[in-house]
Amino acid sequence: MHLFLDTANLDEIAEIANWGVLDGITTNPSLVSKEKKDFKKLVKDICKIVSGPVSAEVVAEDMEGMLTEGRDIATWAENVVVKVPLTPAGLGACSKLAKDNIKVNVTLCFSVNQALMAARAGAYFVSPFVGRLDDINEDGCALVEQIAEMFHIQSLETRVLAASIRTPMHVQRSALGGADACTMPYSVFKMLVKHPLTDSGMAKFLADWKQAKEVVAP
Length: 218
Ligand code: G3P
Description:
eight-stranded parallel beta barrel; 8 strands; 17% strand; binds SN-glycerol-3-phosphate
């Protein structure tokens, strides 16, 4: 499962990119607004740091508007992926952009049937929103598993991109459930690498090393 950061913050992206495990970026209008920067320049700057897929979302609500925005966004960088919402207009835009070989991430997916429609429209990614389903007392990770299974049964090539991730357990269950990629906030990405036994193990190794050096030192 590929690991994506769900942020438009260049400092967060640069830091995690240095770890060598960052496969892509997703942004959305809320995340981009927080940065108070020019959208196009920001996406181009992100694409310079990360060579994997970088999702940038349209904000038009009608299909023609989405197509105009999507076709423009697709020229910003080689690795940019156009993000559209899972609405009738979004599906229509997806199918037309896909026919032009533009990669599309269909976002705001909350059901297996919605995911099926995104795949039939030629989506490169579909993004089930795990945390927002949990928020309404449903099991978001179960949806990721069901979509992955359905795509397998139906031989559909659209990739499952688990989104709206809030906890490391969401990441683990997405990986075990067959997601192709998982996009998470910086805070969750940082938590993935942490374990108290790694920290205490490191401290003990270094203390023993220092003590041994002191013993052999003249
Ligand atoms: O990738 C989608 C994500 O940005 C939504 O996350 O936490 O606002 O539900 P959240």
